[in-house]
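Example record for the data management plan.
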Amino acid sequence: MAKKDSYRVLRVIACILANATGILAANYITFYILDHFNPGMHFVMYSTFPLTQYLHWIIAALAVLSGMLYLLLFNVDAFKRHKFNLKRLILILVLDILLAGAFAMTVNTHAFDWLHLRDIQKENLVAVATLTPTPEPTAAPTAEPTAAPELTPAPDGSTPVPTEEPTATPEPTATPIPGLLGDRYADKFTDGTVVTAEPKTKETLDDGTVKTLLYTYASDSVVIEINHYKLKKLEYQIADIYVRDIKSLWADYSSGSGDTRMASDFGRELGALVCVNSDYFINNATNEGLVIRNGFVLRNNPCVNADLCVIFQNGEMRCYEAKKDKVDNDEILAQYPFHSFYFGPSLLDAEGNAKTEFASPQNINGANPRTAIGYYEPGHYAFLCVLGTRSMHSLSGKNLGNGSSPGLKMAELSELCAKLGMKSAYNLDGGGSSSMYWNKNLFGHNSRATSDIIAVVDQK
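Corresponding structural encoding:
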């Protein structure tokens, strides 16, 4: 009797162990699979544990071993009377992991929503600071008139007539143009009228890439050029953006996970000239990072595992690397940030060169659909969207491109940004989220709802 009781205690312990590790295994394995096809979920794999990339397999092995121990102890008497039934053992083990794991997945996936942990209370948002006003141009100083010299009388008593020296007419001083770009690229902007065109002109680059200019927009505050690129099966689009006011680089976002929408829906509702999906900050189970939109702080937590990208109110865009830089949120907030994204990785080094190592899990570095934001100088940015092998959500027949594009590896994306001459570039949410919406056209997959976009709007 005592022997049976001891087995009963062991069976209970083994049962708890098997189910606990089964839950963890199912979570990690399932998220690993989802992660492979949806790079936006890579937060699950972030860890300071040195064997992070093997952690899911370690936990899976523990689940199998503990499950076998559970089943052996549970059937200890049965094994004495019957032959070992491997099929039954495997079946029960698989069912145990799947059922326990499915329950855990449901709880973990929806707990944040049920508890409203991801929702944003807009009345509690903290503004970083009001936009620092651009100083008015200073008028050129006017020279004071110089008094004419007194004339000395001639010996005969007559007064000499002075000979007038020709006075050089001063060159008019151009009034500096206020804003992020100043006088730079002034020829690209208009006098206030809005000029749009769809040239659809093509040229073939040296490497064989076919570049097509699809759309241009110009006003006195915003200039946009959208080009489509195709190299064999690879397809991507780049929006080249010039803005004189940082507020033209605007973000729209949801108040919680129950308010996620397609990037194209966000763009259409905002009236964006062009937009791309952003970092999907709601989909962050670890609740890490500094997240700022339009000068408002949505989340102010430590930046530990992912690279951070900040666009400041003076137009500068700066990336902070998780593994190299100690990110000081207070120091960043004191420099008037306008947007910050917590996803990554950053794609270029401090000199604007391509990188080969990234602060991201290895399983998302393979070929995937991509979205990125690039930076040339204050006021000059780029949106980049790369097609990959995913399903594509239709938008009234306005889709551009097809799903046979292979996508880009992270290193290839880095090389492309360096080739385009960007000084800094940052990877945003990819996979099914990758989308670029402009002039009622959609390029990208747009097959997964997101919580936020980054867009260009004309401040009129």
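Summary line stored alongside the record: The chain has seven helices and 20 strands.
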